[in-house]
Structure formats: structure tokens, C-alpha cells
Amino acid sequence: MEAYLLDWANLLVRWVHLIAGIAWIGASFYFVMLDNALKPPKDPEATKRGVFGELWAVHGGGFYHSQKYLTGPKHEPLSNDLHWSKWEAYSTWLSGMGMLAIVYWIGASSYLIDSNVMALSPAAAIGISIAFLVAGWVFYDVLCRNMVGKDGLLVTIVFVFVMVANYVLHQVFSARGAYIHVGAMIGTMMAANVFFHIIPGQKKMVEQIRNGEPVDPKPGIVGKQRSVHNTYFTLPVLFIMISNHYPMTYANPNGWLILGVLMMAGVLIRQFFVLRHRGQVKWWLPAAGTALILLLIVLMAPKPVDASGEKVSFSTIRDVMNQRCVSCHAEKPTYDGFVQAPKGIALETPEQIRQHAAKIAETIASGYMPLGNLTGITDQEREAVAIWHAQGASTTD
């Protein structure tokens, strides 16, 4: 019953995370577009009122006229009916942490720990997980506080820091756990940017405007810096959110480097859209991002398996399935914590094994399965599965 309820918790929290993430990233993308598409106001009266830029848009059968005030309107009160974009960010982070707890903390032995990487107790792994998220935010925040106005150098250092963290995490956790923690670290930075800088800075400016005080522009400058960072973080984080479905990436021996290349591709593609909003079309940016992805596809292609040797019998493969796989991949799993077969794939009969032969060969050869090698599959058994598949995946001897 406990595993069944955890499955429901996983489903519902994941659903909330997806909905909140769509709302947050959608709002972020919209405001980045708006900010970069602003034109100087044509009406002199608008300039006198403090309008910095404006945009006319059409959508949903109507017309919209958006105006931006850098430090609030002049000679008129600030509206009390202000819309604050914050709960999308907080809801995304909270639901993401809920998923981290349900999948990777409660299921630490299966999903977070890989004894071949580092032998950890669940308590130690969870402690390292929490410490890493906190330390990642603190380092990033201190870096940003001391480099306001040095955007080019700051971006370079932040990318190097993320890559170092990415590599270190791969030396501590399972490959899947490492990937998700890179995403969780970046997601924590994004949400903390909103909570500690963007929203408090805006509240301070609103208070100064309403008190008739001179408006300090620094909170707006800091908020803009953190908001720009957040928009470039989005595509890498979105990839990591879906990456657990694709072990060919994280289960690769160079998974940390693959993640770095894919993150860079995401940043390049995002930069294309940011500049396009300003009227600058730089096709080399998506071309470079696509080229990086294509390069990975070529370099990561599985090597051909030599199937010319002695035929691998199906009885050998079935023994491997029974000893290493069926405890989880069964109609009624016997491995603790599994109430149903992962992805609904059962491997108890010859027909089921034949049906999933290609995926079996791929995931076992990559090292992804069994999870954390909990069942102790050997290199010889992995090789036998690969050869059996290359020989036609026969289910008869």
C-alpha cells in the first residue's frame, strides 16, 4: 500500500510541477519578449509620464498596448492593482522539491545511489543532496552580488561553475541522480532569484514610489540581471526535466559532458529568440545549437556488436532476466518499493522479452539497467544480451 500511495503522490506532484512550470516559463518568455520588443513612446506626453518603452500587440481577437516605466509613473499615483508574477516560480520550485523527495530521497537506494560510483547510505545521500542545493545557491548568489555590471564575465563563470558542479555530482550520485540534481540546483537558483531579489526589489521600488521618495534604480538593475539569468536557465532545465526518459544521455560514460553540450545548445537556441525579439535575426545561433546536438548524435551512436561468434542461447538470456530484471519487471514485482513494473514493462515470458528486446539491449548495454546495478549484473551478462540482440533476439534455442 505504501508503494501504491507513493506512486499516486509522484503522479499528482509531477502534474502540479508541469502545470506550474508551464505557467512560470510561459510568463518568463512573455516578459523577456516584451522587454526586448519595446519601442520608445511616440507620444511626448507618455515620455513625460515616465514611459520608457511601449509595445502594441494583437492576440485573442483584441489589441494590447503595453508600456514600461523603469522607476514608476511620474506626476501620477501608482496603481494599487498591481499583478505580481511570483507564485508560478514558487509553485514550480516547491512541487519540484516534492518530486525530488518522493523519487530521489524516499527512493534513494534505487534512484540516487550507485554503489559503483560511491557507496553511500540513504541518509548520507540525502544530506549531500540538500547541502549541494544550498551551497550551489550561496556560491551563485555571492558571485552575482559582487559582479553587478560585469555580465559577460559573470555568465562565463556561472557556466563554468555549473559544469564543475555537474562533473562533481557524477562522481557522487547515480548518473540519473546527478542529472536531476544539476536541474534542481539551477531551478533553486531561479526560484531564489525571484524570492530573494526580483520580488523584494520590486516591492522596495513600489514603496518608494508611493511614499514620494526618490526611487533607487539598483533593485531594478539587480532584478533585471537575475531575470536574464533565469531565461537562459530555462531550456537546460526543461531538458533535464525530461532526461530521465532517455538513459542514452545520462547513462553514457561521459554523461556529464553530454549534459554540458546539451545545456550549451539550449542556451544558444534561447539566445536566438531573445535577439529576435530585438529585431536581430542571428541564424548562426540555432545552427550552432543544432550542430552541437547532431555532433552528439554521431559521437554517441552505439558501436556495432560482433555477432559472428557462438550463438547466445535464449536460456542464457532468460536466466539473466530472471536473476537481474524480473524482481522489478514483473506483473507483481518482488523488489521492495515497486508496486508495478517500471514503465509497465514485464519480462517474465519469452513473448514479453522478445517484444522489448531492443530496449533491453539498449538499457543493459548502456549500464542504466538494472538501476544502480542493485541486482549485480556482470559485464559478461551485459555482453551476452548485446550479442543475443545482434543475432536476431531469438526466443528459442
Describe the structure.
The protein is mainly alpha-helical and 397 residues long. The chain folds into two domains: 215 residues, no CATH class; 77 residues, no CATH class. Helix content is 64%, strand content 4%. Strands 1-2 form a two-stranded antiparallel sheet. Helix 1 packs antiparallel against helix 3, helix 6 runs antiparallel to helix 7 and helix 6 packs antiparallel against helix 10.
Short description:
With 397 residues, the chain is mainly alpha-helical. The chain has 15 helices and 2 strands.
Percent helix: 55-70%
Largest sheet: spatial strand order: 1-2
Rg value: 26 Å
Query: SSE order, as H and E?
Result: HHEEHHHHHHHHHHHHH
Strand-pairing-aware structural class: mainly alpha
Kindly, what is the distance between the CA atoms of the first and last residues, rounded to a whole number of angstroms?
A: 40 Å
Query: Low-confidence segments, ≥5 residues, pLDDT <50?
Result: none
Number of helices in the DSSP assignment: 15
Mean pLDDT: 91
Count of distinct structural domains = 2
Number of strands: 2
Largest sheet: 2 strands, antiparallel
- Overall spatial form: elongated
What amount of the residues lies in strands? under 5%
